[in-house]
Structure formats: structure tokens, C-alpha cells
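Below is how a single chain appears once it has passed through the pipeline. First comes the sequence as given, then the structure the pipeline wrote out for it. We keep one example in the README because the format questions we get most often are answered faster by looking than by reading.
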Amino acid sequence: MLNFREPRQSTAGGAEEYAWQVSRFLLSQGASVVFVTGRQRGQRRAEVLEDVQVRRMGNPFLVYVLVPLWLLFHRRSVDVVIDTMNGIPFFSPLVVRRRTPVFCLVHHVHDRQFHAFLPRWLARIGCLVEGPVARLLYRRCLTITVSESSKQELVKRLRWLAAITIVPNGCAEPVDVQPEPVQGDPAIVYAGRLVGHKRIERVVDLAAELDAAWPRLTVHVIGRGPEHGPLARQIEDKGLCGRVVLHGFLSEPRKNALLAAARLNVTASEFEGWGLTVIEAAALGVPTVAYDVAGLRDSVRDGVTGWLVRDGENLQDVVERALKELADPARRTEVADACRAWAREFTWARTGANITGLILAKLQDRGGAYQ
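Resulting structure:
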């Protein structure tokens, strides 16, 4: 399993959880799994976590050199590769044995993200690698993506040549979650990585923008990442102390307890493959407001499990409309029931079983399936 990050790193998100859960499922089916990834300062280079062998190497740039080299030196002991393309692939078809199946896992297309956050020259290189280079290199590798809209973007934006199959994210079923008393009436929440492309500053601004209509509204931000400092300064500069709470990283039970107590989950991201936190919130009966972009339009059922911000609309207006609907107890119960029913359709066991089936079929095609 080749992945840019692993779940214990500070900027890990849904892609890391997906790769890790699939690794654990493959392990449960008798496979030996090596999770090869980047390394943050202070982390061990090699260790075993939950029986998964983890190999860490390189910073966010060197990882794309060191991981293919590791794979080259270990290619004789590798039977299958899942190569996660987080904008940039690991070029595994160039270094593994010819008969070794390679699956390309793509959560979403990164071209707009490159141009939004990188210097122009570097963004162009990123688009070249993600587009023409990867398109040709992986043309014979089955590609796995997580949503129908991500599949469409691969075909339309990257002109992808390989066959594409959809294997959605799973979701861990919450156990014995007791909503904790939470500041704010209503309380809205953002849960996820604190990174630039998540546009969390827009969620923070809701505390001021909705003050007239909802003077007791509080925004709760759960997560860690490099944007924590800028968000704290934004809160202080705009006089939102007490109206916005930065919780940082929370344990899973505490995160679920806070999320379950919220009226609404809000994500302002414009770049997603699916939106794992949308389904995690839905499992707790909490609907989501999100932009009508690839991935999120798949995980949010507009008007049923949440509301989408469409072209010509702004986040503030859609959040206000959602809060007005949810002020009606009957409507709130209806939406919560729909959210829970929707979330039950997604399990990590189903995700893992689907990918296991793809791997076994490919091995059988090549005469190497294990009994």
C-alpha cells in the first residue's frame, strides 16, 4: 500500500483512513501488508501498527523518490501494489515486475488545487504529471476511485485511459455515543484536517455573518493541521473569541460526542473525492452543508441528508436556510433519520471486501491467486 501519509500524521485525512482500513481488511483475509508512506519528524522509520508493517521515508517531496526506490529493491517480494495518487503518483509500474498487478487509487483530481496553492510553474508540473504522464503510465492499471463524480472528473479533466471502478469510503459505526453539553444554540461544527484547501476560514466567518439571525450560534472546529495558527489569529482579529472554539485534535469518543450534539456539520472545501466526515456526521444523525463539487455532491443527498451550495449561492445563505429548517423538531428528526439510514450503507468491511475481490480477480487472471 503506497500512500502519501499515514493516519497518525498531523495532516492525515480521509485518504489515509481509506488506505489504512483497506490494509487492515486485507490483513484480516490473510495477506501480508506493508504500508509505505512519508515520514514526519520524530516518527520511526519502521514499525508494526495493528499488525500492519509501516515503512516511512522522506518529506512531502522526497517521498516520491524514496518510495519507488524502496519498491524497486523489494519488487521480488511484492505480489500486488495499491498506488494512491494524491495528485502525484508513485510511478510503481516502472519499478515492479511486469506480472505484478498495480491498482491506481485516486480520490479526486488535483489540477485546480495545484493552481490554487502552488506557484504557477510548480502547478504546471503537477498538472503535467497528474494528467498526461499518469494517464499513459497507468493506462493498463485498473483505477479505483471513491465516487461517481470523481470518476467523471478523471475522464473529462484528465482524459483517463484506464478502466475505472468505484469503491466508496466506508464509515465506522458509532458505538454508545452520548452527546455532550455543547456551547451554542445552535452549534455548528467543522471536523477534519486544518489545511488551506478545506477553506475553514469560511466556516469561522459564519459566526459573524449569522450573528443577527442567530446571536447564540457557536462554531466548533475539530482537527489539527498547519492552519490552526492562522485560524486562531482570524478569530482574535475579528472578535470571535467565545463564538468560535478551536478544539484541536480530539479522541474518537470525544469527537463523536461533540459532533452528535451539533445542529449542523459544515464543510467549505472545494476539492474532495468523497467527504468522509460527511458520512461520519450522518452516522450520528447530523446533516451537512457543503459546496456542490465533485465528491461532496455524492456524499451529501441534497435536501435529504444535507444541503448543497450551488453556483450563484453563498455558504452563509444556505447554512441559514438549513438552520431554519432544522429549527422545526419534526423536520430535524426526519433529516436525522435519513442521515443515519444513508450512513449505514457505507462500511469499511464492504469497502475492503470490494477491493479484495478486485485483487483476487486480477491475480486469477494472471494465474497467481492464492487459495
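Residues 170 and 350 are 7 Å apart (CA to CA).

See the next section for the split statistics.
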